[in-house]
Amino acid sequence: MTLNQNRNYSDVTAMADVAFSYAPAKIILGGEHAVVYGQSALALAIDRGVRVAVSRVSHANGPILRAINLGFVGEVRPDPQGQGPKVLREALSKLRELIGADAQDLLITVDSDVPVGCGLGSSAALSVALLRGIHRFFGRNLSKENEAELALDLEKIFHGNPSGIDHTVISAGGLICYKRSEQKLLIDHISPGRKLKFAIGMAGQHAGTARAVSALKERSRRHPDIYGRIFSTIGDVVEQMKFCVQEGKLAALGELMDVNQGLLNSLGVSTPKLEALCSIARERGALGAKLTGAGGGGAVIALVDDDPQYIVEAFQAAGYMAFATELEKV
Ligand code: PMV
To answer: Is the pLDDT of residue 120 over 50?
Structure first.
């Protein structure tokens, strides 16, 4: 069984027996980690995502989450000692707290084609899809502002203290430049001058975003000036990237992705497998390649000028799971 991939989920009316929703996954084109320190980052929603169906069951003491495919198959309840991954049980408890008592009689079926724990925003996509599905089920209005606020509360369960870039781009869709400082949040919507196509290669699950972010924080505390300069250089790279995206200058964008990757490596968040994936992509003619997300495992994105398939095949021939992707079609 899969949730219907072709259905337009936005057409479901209030208080239906079943409400469907969808949220896309994302990739970070540049600026991860530095974004936590107030620098700009570029992120885009991609053509894969999480689908949710919400219906009612009685006396469930839920909400019950039934995963058709979420990195695992099975049932999860918000029970501290119950079955299913702990983080999902905690997320369901949080969801019940955010939605109210009504939520405990819900059965939520989830289907996803987003690899979990690989920097593709699977938890933020799940958070946004859950909120959309539940609000739609109850016929409640969910403004973009509210959606982003509630999704951040859920993201905190998965990621500790996230910068907010994942759930923001997933909620907004398209391609954004995101910058958060203590004083303000800047979100710029960007129209790419040319189509952006990527091959994605998977180096396996990473050890968790919260852990990668806090380990980097420790290192940067020991060498604040040096790390501070690397973060601000990444910020400069991202500003140039933004211009290249808008102007459709893909070759220059690829070069900047390579520079960003070098800087991420200097921050200690790359791995031999991620470096190997970047090398394979560059040798096969990718315009540029870098890790995306927290690193320490996860995924590499390779920007291509034409068909990403030959790089996908090169990744697969070297033993890595891989797929082609592009900006989400809306
Ligand atoms: O959750 P991930 O792997 O997509 O990483 C998010 C990006 C980071 O900058 C590493 C963390 C954050 O909160 O911005």
So the answer is: yes
